[in-house]
Amino acid sequence: MKYPISPESTVTLHLSLTLEDGTVAESTFDDEPLTFILGDGTLVEGLELGLYGLRPGDTQRLSLFPEQAFGLRDPEKVHRLPRADFPAEMALEPGCIIGFDTPEGEELPGMIVSTDDTSVEVDFNHPLAGRVLIFDVEIIDVVLADTDD
Predict the structure, then answer these.
(1) What are the beta bridge partners of residue 26?
(2) The model's pTM
(3) Does domain 10-70+129-143 have CATH number 3.10.50.40?
(4) Largest Cα–Cα distance of the chain, in whole Å?
């Protein structure tokens, strides 16, 4: 039986993530499909909502606005840090992503925006924040949360 996707279903699918300019940022179509439990945080909420009711064999194209995906860009997440806080041998090229330790002990990625002799500008926004994203999905399998099917 082809069950529809519902809360806490285990879903196996192929997906591609494309930017508005046509750049494919990620795709599983030429690789192994992705398996996850709906609601476990693997996918952004806007994409999960668009999957409800789909069944194995279904395909779907979803365009998500920033608010439905990784949020709007927040200028307060761009910080200028002292160059002395970085190892002297570290290459700090614009576009480079570096992991920073938070006070809570977690790692937070930041992208180098610019650098000069005294400071480094780092953007802590998600790299896809502020972008319209296009997801293409093909549902391969759905296992309901309360069954062994």
Answers:
(1) 17
(2) 0.79
(3) yes
(4) 64
Tokens of 54: 């789909």
> Amino acid identity of 79?
H
The pLDDT tens digits for 3-17 are 999 999 999 999 999
In DSSP terms, which residues pair with 10 in a beta bridge? 37, 143
At 85-117, the pLDDT tens digits run 999 898 899 999 999 988 898 898 999 999 998
Amino acid letter, residue 36: F
Q: Show the tokens assigned to 85.
A: 């806080």
Domain ranges of the chain: 10-70+129-143, 75-123
Domains 10-70+129-143 and 75-123 share a fold: no
CATH number for region 75-123: 2.40.10.330
